[in-house]
Design a protein that fits this description.
Blueprint (H helix, E strand, L loop, with lengths): L1 H38 L8 H7 L7 E3 L4 H7 L5 E2 L4 H20 L13 E8 L5 E8 L22 E7 L4 E7 L4
Parallel strand pairs: 1-3
Antiparallel strand pairs: 2-3, 3-4, 4-5, 5-6
């Protein structure tokens, strides 16, 4: 009887050791998987900071105009409402703007915009009923006599490539309109 108890105890210890070893192995494999997954650049979502390092946005060149229902109606339509933009939106705006200027150059326009990053940009943003965001940019090469450019919309007639306007859809990342002031 003592011999059978010893054999059962030994078998129980072997079973417990196998179970323990299997558990340790599973934890090790899971830990290794999680470590490899965290090192995989494809699985990492890019933070805003990483996007800004790749495509820095000079926020001193941007002015988000105060909420103005009349301006929203003029530039977007009555069904639109004012919306706040995030830092990530400005990265997207800058990217779409750069592409829009490049596309404008390819069209062979006689009035070319160069270096959009050097322009001051007044921003008006609105959303439609479906949540799609549109942005209207009023771009100015100079702030001469326009010290209040962050509070009021600056309307300039003529002035050539010193002034241009872009309307874009942030959801589709498409330019709705692009116009450069006339030479006057």
């Amino acid at each position: 009887m003592a011999l059978t108890v010893q054999i059962k105890m030994r078998n129980l210890r072997l079973t417990l050791n196998k179970t323990y070893n299997l558990l340790i192995m599973r934890v090790a494999v899971l830990s290794l998987f999680l470590l490899l997954q965290s090192l995989n650049p494809i699985s990492k979502s890019k933070s805003l900071f990483e996007y800004q390092k790749l495509h820095p946005v000079d926020m001193s060149k941007y002015a988000v105009l105060p909420e103005d229902k009349e301006a929203i109606n003029i530039f977007f339509g009555k069904s639109y409402r004012f919306v706040q933009l995030t830092n990530a939106d400005f990265v997207e705006i800058d990217s779409i703007l750069t592409k829009a200027v490049d596309d404008h150059k390819k069209e062979g326009s006689y009035v070319l915009v160069k270096h959009p990053d050097k322009y001051y940009k007044q921003v008006l943003a609105a959303a439609d009923e479906k949540g799609g965001q549109e942005v209207y940019l009023n771009c100015l090469c100079s702030l001469e006599n326009n010290k209040d450019w962050k509070q009021r919309f600056i309307l300039v007639m003529d002035g050539g490539n010193c002034y241009f306007q872009v309307k874009m859809n942030l959801k589709t990342k498409k330019v709705i309109s692009f116009s450069v002031n006339g030479l006057g």
